[in-house]
Specification:
alpha+beta, disordered N terminus, 153 residues, 9 strands, disordered C terminus, six-stranded antiparallel β-sheet, 20% helix, three-stranded antiparallel β-sheet, Thiol Ester Dehydrase, Chain A
């Protein structure tokens, strides 16, 4: 993530996560369920990173759908994985992201598509994505830079 003149880059988000000993199964590779956990941890970091600077980090949202393709195993010699997140679509109440999980050698191990829904916990219903959040998501989707002023109006 780069910063120039008050603008925050809203393109691809990337983070590194630690692979824990308990993540491995009897075959010596990361258990398939752990990929979902890595993706969730990365989404939390994405939301804090992208929405937090604008005071939008507490948007209640839920996962509506997860699709995952397991492409290759993360083996015991990996102590970390990288996760990239790209915004693919922004709707009225939901947005879709693509997450790619890489092993320590930089090989793609899993690809996920996730639909997130803005949510009102008091009514248990989907709600319209607030304008400030929509601006951040749209900027990421279109790979543009926005400023603190541009995100709220």
């Amino acid at each position: 993530m780069s910063s120039r003149g008050g603008a925050v880059d809203r393109g691809t988000f990337r983070c590194t996560l630690q692979v824990r000993w308990a993540d491995f199964d009897q075959y010596g590779h990361v258990n398939n369920v752990k990929y979902i956990e890595y993706a969730q941890e990365a989404r939390i970091l994405f939301i804090r990173s992208r929405f937090g600077p604008f005071g939008l980090g507490n948007l209640p949202q839920v996962v509506r759908r997860v699709e995952i393709d397991h492409l290759r195993p993360v083996l015991r010699d990996s102590t970390s994985v990288d996760v990239e997140i790209e915004v693919e679509h922004v709707g009225t109440t939901s947005y879709q992201i693509r997450q790619t999980i890489f092993d320590a050698a930089g090989e793609v191990c899993a690809a996920l598509r996730v639909v997130m829904v803005a949510y009102d916990a008091s009514t248990s219903t989907a709600v319209e994505i607030p304008l400030g959040v929509r601006n951040v998501l749209d900027a990421a989707h279109h790979r543009t830079a926005i400023t603190d002023h541009g995100s709220t109006g």
